[in-house]
Amino acid sequence: MSAIETNAQQRIDNRTLAEVRRGVAACVPVLLGIVPYALVLGAQAAQKDLSLIEVPLMTGLNFAGGSEFAAIQLWTSPPHVALIVAITFLVNSRHLLMGAALAPFLRHLPKRKVLPALFVMTDESWALALADIRERAARGLHPAFSMPYYLGTALVFYAAWVGFTTLGAVLGPVLGDVKAYGFDMAFPAVFLVLMRGMWKGFDAARPWLVSLVVAAVTYLVVPGALYVAAGAVSGLIAAYILTGEA
Questions:
Q1: How far from 149 is each of 55, 84, 142, 143, 244, CA to CA, in Å?
Q2: pLDDT digits (tens, 9 = 90+) for 66-97
């Protein structure tokens, strides 16, 4: 490799590293909200007798906090596997829409990079990546999607989620009912912050409202965790119908 090629590669490496650092810095405020409910999930998993090996396996292989909370609520011995899988699919089905929103900005990338990147996509990394895309596009930068920035956020979330859920499983038996400390409030708080960033007006939020009302009513009248599925399905149906009206 010539000196010119070496210098060019060095500049590319430096830009990539700078983008990764920018992604890590962007995710830190959100990370402060994720840590408490990762501890809550780990503690709840320990209360369901999941071991210190099973907790990181669950959170690492199914990297989606909402469905993991639902799965833990449904967990019995022996577990109702089909029900847990169905609920997990319904709760995570929003990722189909989130991936579709990112797809136009990923077309220039090979699938060997896109598919692993989408595996670590969460609501938080998706929202940060979409906001960054809009900002870069407004500045005329191409491509608008920065993979190093995205990975800087997503991989930190992944490591923190797996690490702190495991720590929650360790501390849970010592602390007892962690809900008493109010940690579980961090979960809705983070989503409220994310929703504020995605707010596009009342019309676009109507599926959210339908999902919220149906889930709340189901929670009040039907025992168990079926309110999760009811909220997810009603939100998807509302999004399909209301999108057709637009």
A1: 28, 33, 14, 12, 34
A2: 788 878 877 877 778 888 888 788 778 778 77
